[in-house]
Amino acid sequence: MDTHEHMRSYTRYIRKMMTGNGLFYPIVGIVSCVAFIYMSFGDLRVTYHREPELTFVTRNGTQFMVDGRPFYINGWNSFWLMDHSAEEDRRPRVRAMLEAGAKMGLTVCRAWAFNDGGYNALQVSPGQFDERVFKALDHVIAEARQHGVRLLLSIVNNLKAYGGKTQYVKWAWEEGIGLSSSNDSFFFDPTIRRYFKNYVKTLLTRKNTITGIEYRNDPSIFGWELMNEPRCVSDPSGDTLQEWIEEMSAFVKSIDKNHLLTVGLEGFYGPTNPKRSTMNPENWASILGTDFIRNSKVQHIDFASVHIYPDHWFQHQTFEEKVTFVSKWMLSHIEDGQHELSKPVFFTEYGFSNLNKDFQPSQRDRFYKSILDIIYKSAKRKRAGAGALVWQFFVEEMEEFNDDFGIVPWERPSTYRYFTDQSCRLARLRGIHRQNQILRELCLQTEN
């Protein structure tokens, strides 16, 4: 039955039902109006763009799971999303980046869910928040949801950028209640721990002003990261950081049992682990107060995180030596996830610097490809290598936010192709969902 015949039949039905009670003509008027709109614009239910329906990512042993199937991740870092969303003139870049990522078949983006003190601060002072910036984070999460991209959100920085643990220590010191001016007092000072717990609770229970969903109940958030690259160099034994991870991971899970949680580690082996001398980049890496195995074994930590930066970790290695190290580094951690931790291993940052002597873009391509290939081979064998997030992606005209690792992915066709190919071959391992039209079209193109 065509549209016009459908409306004529509906009108006859209404007339039959209503002729005896005086309501016929008003109802026919309403029906006629609806019919005009319907026939002028078509079936609105069909043409209206519906956001992808996302479910929570879970874990089954060494694998991430979505809707009962393994979920292997190809994604990226754009730490700047909240900061840009807070400025009206820069906000369009957030949508542009998330839309571009979705078109590349990328499924997870890692970003900061913190800005402590300073310009565009989310947390202006302990327990005091700027609602304008919180609404900016609401916007980032809502945009990610619209584009079917999940977010891995980091809660605080070990580094000074965007406040980090330095700002927390400064707040306590300025109030005259801090135990020490050392940055590492972030991990053991009771006052600072209270500051941080208050921030965590406020963040996780935040009700998004756009979607109406509390963050802890939003499946568009992939998971939480306790800290970006935690280090506690004042206690190389690792005991101080270990205690902090145990306490804070339990606290997060007491509020939010829906989302996955990780520490945010770089992946260095600690002083008691025999791999410190064979797998760490250099001796300094074993005395930073972190321990990949010990930290990742904590009960409430769902998956292990690892970073890959041979350019920063080595001073005098050749490009070939760095590529060899990357392979050993990744395979070692995947083996740990498989046999020691029984948890997924997620390489949440990797990058290749353009400040290297004799840098060539082709070297960066090869570096990326070596990492993506190892992830694919691990996924194909159903091993613990769960995915990787490149550091970092931008859109055009953002050079002031760039570093020696950042790229606009579509500016170099070969680089773009590596990422889209990875998206498709990982998707094929689990079967491309028939409702994911963007991914279906993308992967059809990669076959040609």
Please, could you describe this protein's structure?
It catalyses: Random hydrolysis of (1->4)-beta-D-mannosidic linkages in mannans, galactomannans and glucomannans. GO terms for molecular function: mannan endo-1,4-beta-mannosidase activity. Residues 55-393 form the Glycoside hydrolase family domain. The protein is α/β, with parallel strands linked by helices and 448 residues long. It folds into two domains: 1-48, no CATH class; 55-446, Alpha-Beta Barrel (TIM Barrel). 44% of the residues lie in helices and 12% in strands. It has an eight-stranded parallel β-sheet with strand order 10-9-8-5-4-13-12-11. A three-stranded antiparallel β-sheet has the order 1-2-3, with no helix packed on it. Helix 5 (92-103) packs parallel to helix 6 and helix 14 packs across helix 15 (437-447). The longest helix is centred in the C-terminal third of the chain and has 23 residues, at 319-341. It is globular. The chain starts with a helix and ends with a helix. The model is unreliable at 1-49 (pLDDT under 50).
